Amino acid sequence: MTEAEWLACDDPTTMLEFLRGKTSDRKLRLFAVACCRLNWDSFEGGPLAGFVELAEEFIEGRLDEARRAKAELYLLDLYEKELDNEKEYISAPFTAVLKLISHDRYVRGDAINCSGNVAHWALGGDIYTNYGPFEKELEAEHTFFLRDIFGNPFRPVIADPSWLTSTVVALASQMYGSRDFSAMPILADALQDAGCENTDVLDHCRDTKGVHVRGCWVVDLVLGKA
């Protein structure tokens, strides 16, 4: 894959294949969470919403082992009941969320499966109806998350310690904690005031058409998260 192809790609599978060996367990899990939250109306009111939120706690190291193990067993029981009811298409998101709260290493294949399963489920999951074009359109939206979380792998950026003023770190921390990234342009101004002249960093913060989620590469850069 070339840099131009990465920037224009609309297939998350292709992008995730390219990231083989180039990313962390945490970022792949956060990508999967972003896919779930994009179609949150499919989760709200159902049993999986709470488990996605628990997965975020687990990713951040805030979920104690007793709660994690209990949640995993309960979700596994729900999954088996779905299989017993022969709701095969509904069970796929259960396996995706199960993986998110598992100690098993999270790999690009897990992220690929989550992207596809959530897209299929959000559109009704009816294998006898032609949802193909719509599913592809939804999966294409997932590529925005990949570019937000992983940035441009052809141009990695290392933060200059001088950029990390108290204002810059406070803005990044607030956005990360709240999942409200509306202050990204303000972060760009704060970074520039601190001496940052990296156009990739500043442009990403100021891109009004951009999508930002937990794991955003600029916010992670500021907070020292990998």
Please explain how this structure is put together.
This protein has 226 residues and is an all-alpha fold. The chain has 2 domains: 148 residues, no CATH class; 63 residues, no CATH class. The chain is 65% helix and 0% strand. The longest helix has 20 residues. It is globular and about 60 Å long. The two termini are 23 Å apart.
SSE map:
Elements: H1 3-8, H2 12-18, H3 25-38, H4 40-43, H5 48-59, H6 65-84, H7 88-100, H8 108-122, H9 132-150, H10 166-178, H11 184-193, H12 199-206, H13 217-223
Number of domains: 2
The span between the termini is: 23 Å
Q: What is the helix tally?
A: 13
Shape label: globular
Taking all residues together, what is the mean pLDDT?
Answer: 88
* Topology as a string of helices (H) and strands (E): HHHHHHHHHHHHH
The structural class is mainly alpha
Q: Could you write a compact summary of the structure shown?
A:
The chain has helices at 3-8, 12-18, 25-38, 40-43, 48-59, 65-84, 88-100, 108-122, 132-150, 166-178, 184-193, 199-206, 217-223. It is mostly helical and 226 residues long.
Supply the key terms.
226 residues; mainly alpha; 65% helix; globular
